[in-house]
Input
Amino acid sequence: MSDKGYARPDVLVSTEWVAQHLDDPSVRVIESNEDILLYDIKHIPGAVQIDWQRDLNDPLTRDYLGREQFEALMARHGIGNDTTVVFYGDKNNWWACYAFWVFQLFSHTNARVMDGGRAKWEAEGRPMVRETPSYAPTTYKAPERADYQIRATREQVLEHVRQQRPLVDVRSPGEYSGELLHMPAYPQEGALRGGHIPGARNIPWARAANADATFKTADELRAIYEEEQRLKADDNVIAYCRIGERSSHTWFVLTYLLGYPHVRNYDGSWTEWGNLVGVPIER
Output
């Protein structure tokens, strides 16, 4: 990985690095996509699939899986506590960053993201297969989920608004203005009202990515978040989108690439906020 000035360059690996570690038993490559059918069509050799809805979310409560469920997920994919997990996926890695974020709720810090994701791997003509790998199960021990460090609740967002602290709305301008209730070209569903949380700055998540799905350099990112939008590295920042997946990409950028120490992802996001009774919105 070339030096792009990141605060934590170790958290990104290149497609070349992944190609060199395909047979490394201490590394587990994980594909996580918006389009879950892509994995079955073809994927990086040896990669396992983490389905954001089936694997990471509780089937009944709108919440993430618990400690025992996470331990079972890791054991099923042959991941140990010391295994390096490397995430990649479609959509400029936004779902890969989402899975990475959920793993951090359980403190699996030995985690990386493959810069450029699935698009870059394919563009370089690297091998892809249809075979689903099988790994010997492990015994994995996870701590209780540590939401308070990197996850924000609606009550915390309300307090954030009262204190006029920075909020980053990473959705499209149409969603931010209230014209759309979902991303462009998607069904307009999921919220009763359109708009944004009062005081939020609109910085669409994809601005952090290049055309080849890699992340922009630290200087380019600082030009967006700091020079243009006046964020500061020591700010207490909450990012949100519609269900927390696009904002996990921005959380990753601010936390690891720019080194902001106080960034949380509001995964309730606009699906929750736009349906709450009595909370303020702006258009």
In short: DSSP finds eleven helices and nine strands in the chain. The first strand starts at residue 12 and ends at 13. The radius of gyration is 18 Å. The chain has two domains: 9-145, 149-273.
